[in-house]
Structures are given as C-alpha cells and as structure tokens.
Specification:
Blueprint (H helix, E strand, L loop, with lengths): L2 E5 L6 H11 L3 E4 H7 L10 H20 L4 E4 L5 H14 L3 E7 L2 H14 L7 H10 L8 E5 L6 H13 L4
Helix pairs in contact: 1-7, 3-4
C-alpha cells in the first residue's frame, strides 16, 4: 500500500490526475473538495480556517482507515502549506505505507486560461480571484522534499498517467 498526496495550485489538474491514479492503482480516493461538498462548503468561495481543520480531520480519519484496510490511498488536496504534507506523511508512516508527494506544476498563464475556460463552461465550481490570489501567494512548494513532478499539461495524457501509475505501484519505502 502507498499513500500519494497531490500538491499544487487550483486548476493544475490535481483532481483529474488523482481520479486517474486512484483508478489505475487501484486506490481509495480521499478528496478534500468532496468532503467540503458533503459538508455544504465550497472552497473556491473561501472557507474559514476552523472549517478547513474539520475537513482535514475527516480526511485524515478516512485516509487512516483506508491504509489500515490495506488500500493504496490517493489524497486530492493542494498539499500546501508544508505542515499539511507533514501531517499526511505522519499518517502514512504510522501505517507503514510509503508516502509520495505528486506536485502538479502549473504556470500562471495556463492557470488563468483554465480559470477563464471554466468560467465559460462552468464544468466545476468557480474559484474567486481573491481565493486564487491568496492561494498562490501562500503556496509553499515542496522544493526541499522528495517529490514526483508532473506538468499540468500532462494530467490528461494517458501515456504519462500510466507511467506515473507504474511508478507509484513500484515505489517502496527506503
């Protein structure tokens, strides 16, 4: 069993990639956006910190339960700030599961293009400009950690996704 945590900015393709990884491994998916939705919250509009804390508590509980049941786990979250990654790392370590950060990198230009396209299509809930700005300004990239880097443009490339699934399947704790 392995735990993979998505990391990156909004509209990078983390949810798309997380769903593909969960299907390909197979793994159980823990999505903080879906937990927020279950709770009647919408992250793209801004959520108070105490509500995010509760969403994280629920997500951690689900992740632990899946690992304890012997499942691979893919966590769909922003993976920022650093303490968020560290808490997931502790959960994986307690279960004896390898922990991987999958950093989906997106340029500001591509992010803006995807935001504009989404505002036209409404394929997913909007993220306000203020939330996008705050997240970009506070994002703590995992530059001093072992990560798997994925370009945002590759999240829909079946061959690259398949290669990433293989890499996750073969990963072992050092």
């Amino acid at each position: 069993m392995t735990m993979a945590l998505m990391c990156g900015l909004s509209f990078a393709g983390k949810s798309t990639l997380a769903a593909q990884l969960a299907e390909g491994l197979p793994a159980s998916l823990v999505s903080l956006d879906l937990i927020n939705e279950e709770r009647g919250l919408h992250g793209g509009q801004g959520i108070p910190l105490e509500e995010w804390a509760e969403t994280n508590r629920i997500a951690h509980e689900r992740g632990r339960d899946f690992l304890d049941a012997g499942h691979h786990v893919v966590v769909d979250d922003t993976g920022s700030p650093r303490f968020i990654r560290d808490e997931w790392r502790k959960i994986a370590n307690r279960s004896g599961a390898p922990f991987l950060v999958v950093w989906v990198q997106i340029s500001p230009e591509l992010q803006q293009a995807r935001v504009r396209a989404n505002r036209q299509s409404r394929d997913r809930p909007d993220v306000t400009d203020a939330v996008l700005h705050d997240h970009r300004a506070s994002f703590e990239p995992p530059t001093d950690e072992e990560v798997i880097v994925v370009d945002a443009q590759d999240t829909a490339d079946p061959a690259r996704v398949a290669a990433l699934v293989q890499r996750l399947r073969s990963h072992r704790t050092p």
